[in-house]
Write a structure and sequence with these properties.
Structural class: alpha+beta
Strand content: 25-35%
CATH superfamily: Gcn5-related N-acetyltransferase (GNAT)
Distance between the termini: 14 Å
CATH topology: Aminopeptidase
Number of helices: 4
Shape: globular
């Protein structure tokens, strides 16, 4: 996996769930990256992780000194069989660790893991068209903008867009 002096990327383990849950809870409460309104608890996050792993899809973390700085996973884009080669990515980085390349390293590893699993397309469903950092992150790794769904969510007392980006995993480069 991808290691640097600052942090390491590795598969998640069950002991990571409490930290993953807290990272996600802050995003749910304060951000627009997730359209959930109430953060799920540890039991729900455990069930979600187990579901991803049961589908033989990656669920990874970035750590430093044993502390989870961020996490990423790929889930099936849609449940119907015709979509089985397409995945949707999710990347979350703790507030204190943002801006240090952790999200990019997680997404790069996720792309590599999904390629190795035989997946062909990766879709990013980004909450908020004003989420410049997530849009730039995906663009830097070869995702292209395929559409914007305007005002499809309502959170934090405002209407929020969803940005759809896509990467063809059969094309090497930009990861």
């Amino acid at each position: 996996m991808n290691d640097t002096p600052e942090f390491a990327i590795r598969p998640s383990i069950s002991d990571d769930i409490a930290e993953i849950t807290e990272i996600y809870a802050i995003s749910v409460r304060q951000g627009l990256g997730s359209f959930e309104i109430e953060p799920p608890d540890v039991l729900e996050m455990t069930a979600r992780r187990n579901s991803i792993l049961e589908q033989q899809l990656p669920y990874i973390v970035a750590t430093r000194d044993g502390i989870v700085l961020g996490y990423a996973y790929a889930g099936l884009y849609r449940p119907r069989p015709a979509y089985s080669h397409s995945v949707e990515n999710s990347v979350y980085v703790s507030e204190s660790a943002q801006g240090h390349g952790i999200g990019k390293a997680l997404l790069r590893q996720l792309i590599d893991d999904c390629r190795a699993a035989g997946k062909k397309q990766m879709v990013a469903v980004i909450g908020d068209s004003g989420n410049r950092s997530s849009i730039a992150l995906h663009r830097s790794l070869g995702f292209r903008l395929v559409g914007i769904l305007e005002a499809v969510g309502y959170k934090h007392d405002r209407w929020v867009d969803t940005v759809i980006m896509q990467k063809n995993l059969d094309i090497e480069g930009d990861s």
